[in-house]
Amino acid sequence: MKFRYEISKLALSDLDTIWHYTAEQWSKQQASKYYKQIFQAINDICSKPEIGKTINEIKEGQRMMNVKSHMIVYKIGNKKILIDRILHQRMDLEAQLNE
């Protein structure tokens, strides 16, 4: 069974920031390519939710999966995956998730 997904407002903001930063630093083409890679990872999560590593020590019930330089932080719900954040690997995960 494939899960549906929902993206939080914070994760949508993260995506917007990632796209704009990538477009400014490299190109719009590269930003769009990276955006597609992130959504492919989200689709992979929806197909196999346990693919991500648990991060219960940081935030109970959360998992994360790396995509290039970013981490998709999500929670498995009832037939739905909640994408909480999409953060750069250099960010302090604990501080970002416990704001």
Short description:
By secondary structure, the protein is of the alpha+beta class.
Write the layout of secondary structure elements.
Layout: E1 4-7, H1 9-25, H2 28-47, E2 53-54, E3 62-67, E4 70-76, E5 80-88, H3 93-97
Parallel strand pairs: 1-5
Antiparallel strand pairs: 2-3, 3-4, 4-5
Notes on the protein architecture:
This is Toxin. InterPro entries: ParE1/4, RelE/ParE_toxin, RelE/ParE_toxin_dom_sf, TA_system_RelE-like_toxin. Keywords: Toxin-antitoxin system. Belongs to the RelE toxin family. The chain contains three helices and five strands; from the N terminus they run E-H-H-E-E-E-E-H. It is an alpha+beta fold and 99 residues long. The chain has a single domain, classed as 2-Layer Sandwich (YaeB-like fold). The protein has a five-stranded mixed β-sheet with strand order 1-5-4-3-2. A hairpin with a 2-residue loop joins strand 3 (62-67) and strand 4. The chain is globular and about 35 Å long. The model has no long low-confidence stretch (mean pLDDT 92).
